[in-house]
Design brief:
Maf protein; 192 residues; alpha/beta; 7-stranded mixed β-sheet; 27% strand; 6 helices
């Protein structure tokens, strides 16, 4: 089996990938995650997932590299990682009682053959009509400042959500495992 590498610093993606019981290593790519002017959110997510995988592939020529990126969108506008409490509070206030689409881009790059499989897995989240006090309480308890859209469904963020819809619940956390299993099988890597 080829060396499997997760090109991500996310502990949540690492935990998800561990569920597949495959040996892997982690290499954190140095990639500018800024969207390009006029770039559609799903295009940003796919471009960044692929860029991260290719960047790691430069130093790991015989590896299969998993690249991921996630962009949250509200009315077609990107909601990036808030990075600060103030930005997170603004994001959550905008999202209250509204539906947000999370574009979880996934790619599997075979550095030996230069084969790239890539897909945007979309997950829909309807947020509850949150009060300002609920938003502040959540932010103080969870501090989701490095999560697209300020919401961590794998933690207390689940309380912000009225409903969620999509084909793979892992996509919302940032690593669509159902899609990844198919990509691995396409590379001759059986998971079970």
């Amino acid at each position: 089996m080829a060396n499997l590498i997760l090109a991500s610093s996310s502990p949540y993606r690492r935990e998800l990938l561990e569920r597949l019981k495959l040996p892997f290593s982690i290499v954190v790519p140095d990639v500018d995650e800024s969207p390009l002017p006029g770039e559609a959110p799903e295009t940003t997510a796919l471009r960044l997932a692929q860029a991260k995988a290719r960047k790691v592939g430069q130093d790991h020529a015989n590896a299969l590299i998993i690249g991921c990126d996630q962009v949250a969108t509200l009315d077609g506008q990107q909601l990036g990682k808030p990075l600060t409490h103030e930005n997170a509070a603004r994001q959550l206030a905008l999202m209250r009682d509204r539906t947000v689409l999370f574009h979880s881009a996934l790619c599997l790059y075979n550095a030996a053959t230069d084969r790239m499989q890539a897909e945007d897995v979309v997950y829909e989240v309807k947020f509850r009509p949150l009060t300002d006090a609920q938003i502040e309480n959540y932010l103080h308890l969870e501090q989701p400042y490095h999560c697209a859209g300020s919401a961590k469904s794998e933690g207390l963020g689940i309380a912000l959500m009225e409903h969620m819809r999509g084909d793979d619940p892992n996509a919302l956390i940032g690593l669509p495992l159902i899609t990844l299993v198919s990509m691995l099988q396409n590379e001759g890597i059986p998971v079970i």
